[in-house]
Amino acid sequence: xxxxxQALAKRSCMLFSSPDDPVDVWVPELQRNLPEVEFRVAPExxxxxxxxxxxxxxxxxxxxASLPNLKVIFSIGAGIDHILADPERPKALPIxxxxxxxxxxxxxxxxxxxxxxxxxxxPEYQADQQARVWQRRWPHYTPEMxxxxxxxxxxxxxxxxxxxxxxxxxxxxxxxxxxxxxIECFHGRAALPVMLSACHYLVCVLPxxxxxxxxxxxxxxxxxxRGAVVVSIGRGKHVVEPDLLSALESGxxxxxxxxxxxxxxxxxxxxxxxxxxxxxxxxxAGEIVPKSSAKVVxxxxxxxxxxxxxxxxxxxxxxx
Amino acid sequence: xxxxxQALAKRSCMLFSSPDDPVDVWVPELQRNLPEVEFRVAPExxxxxxxxxxxxxxxxxxxxASLPNLKVIFSIGAGIDHILADPERPKALPIxxxxxxxxxxxxxxxxxxxxxxxxxxxPEYQADQQARVWQRRWPHYTPEMxxxxxxxxxxxxxxxxxxxxxxxxxxxxxxxxxxxxxIECFHGRAALPVMLSACHYLVCVLPxxxxxxxxxxxxxxxxxxRGAVVVSIGRGKHVVEPDLLSALESGxxxxxxxxxxxxxxxxxxxxxxxxxxxxxxxxxAGEIVPKSSAKVVxxxxxxxxxxxxxxxxxxxxxxx
Lengths: 320, 320
Prior knowledge:
The structure is a homodimer.
Chain A: H1 3-8, E1 13-17, H2 23-33, E2 38-41, E3 53-56, E4 72-75, H3 81-84, E5 95-96, H4 101-119, H5 122-130, E6 146-150, H6 154-165, E7 169-174, E8 184-187, H7 192-196, E9 201-204, H8 218-223, E10 228-232, H9 241-250, E11 253-258, E12 278-280, H10 290-305
Parallel strand pairs in A: 1-2, 1-3, 3-4, 4-5, 6-7, 6-9, 7-8, 9-10, 10-11, 11-12
């Protein structure tokens, strides 16, 4: 390349903004995968007009609107509700959700952990250990236990298949019709209670949309077999938390393995913290790991720079 | 059949003996699968000479020797060490170990649970929950973590494959040479330290033999990467417990998920009970579930009745 050309071509520029993700890991990883792009880290924007791309988690309200030449918004997360929460966001710009095979694999690991924790009586055995009690419990027979998976996209389909491989019966539920080998598939709101009626374990990996918010309410819990276990790893607002607490109190729900909450972190007085049948983790089921995700983002930026269609742009009418 | 024939043909007879397994589940399940066989439950032998088969867990010393016409001993367990422990056992009789696909699947479930519990920081997150602390920990990157599986028989091969499918690097170790797709296989005692040197998680599903007793000693723990986690689901005597405690104290071993112990149950004063990095379960990783195992036993009894070779007879020279 002739020296003059490099000076003339404007270098593309990406802004990183996240209150929760480590900038010192993310930006070097992105830079390594996209050496041709300049990176800036909010709130140090420099000349805002330089910025072509933003990669964000929970962007401060107004940040995206302050970038006059922004072209694409990348979500540091499979969901994009944290971006839609900004009322000032530039509505015409494409938003790309994170579709990372490794994020999917992490969600699978967590779903297996959550279900197996209750399936193999870990709450009981951990209490026994504390009390120095040796008491073998009669095991559940896996081929007669059903795992239900809410959401059958990239993540849910793999989660469902993972349980099928372990010998569980598996049911899946999605907005539109899906077919997956060996999985009993249901779709649409009307089919939800029917689907739930056989699920001893229920794993929610739905995206948060107007249709899915509050889906796991008193009626949904009542539709489950008595003592069913809920593993919630989509978004906290899928679950009507007071309804879950009532269902746990009555024994209708036998346990909950929760990674996401209506408000994060939950208030110190939230009854989940000390509930004997609730396991809590701090929104870590499907973390975005830069080592993997930076590659996914880089491939997409290169598509855009080459004038090709970018992948995984959210359909805003559908919400994911 | 002519009435007289039935009276003349001696009906085969099986004795059930176990201090730990529910006779009220086992015997009806066996009877349902083998209606042509008569069942008796120790210590009510009736005429001892009637008994052709014994199905046992930890048989009392001398019980098997008291059955003059015993032909086959069936183990209620994948291991047979609990039978060999009886010095009076009839040495010439075939002993059949339990090779039940469902037992294998249960062991896989447990191995996944044990590894994922530590891999996904559950000890830390459970302590955080008790303290109402919201603290996200930087995740391990699964493709860079290695699971080592000791024992590559029916159970170990499936365990290794399950971890491979989750995206872990997997190493396996066995007595004789084995080859498994996608698994880095090692064999023989000399190769053990080399194999261990990369294993962040170590799952032991070996049979207990003269060669494997005490295999997990100070030298083995020292060969692991610092902070490795041990999941012990073979037999308690594979582990030199004082050595494991020292390795936990020094941090060389970062955690242990234990289902089996040198003495079961462990004494109330055993340091495992309250160790913050030890998870204990009461020998339930691979329980024998009559619903599945009675079918396996029935098929084998029918082979014997038909004069065909029975399956899964232990090679006593090898020990499994």
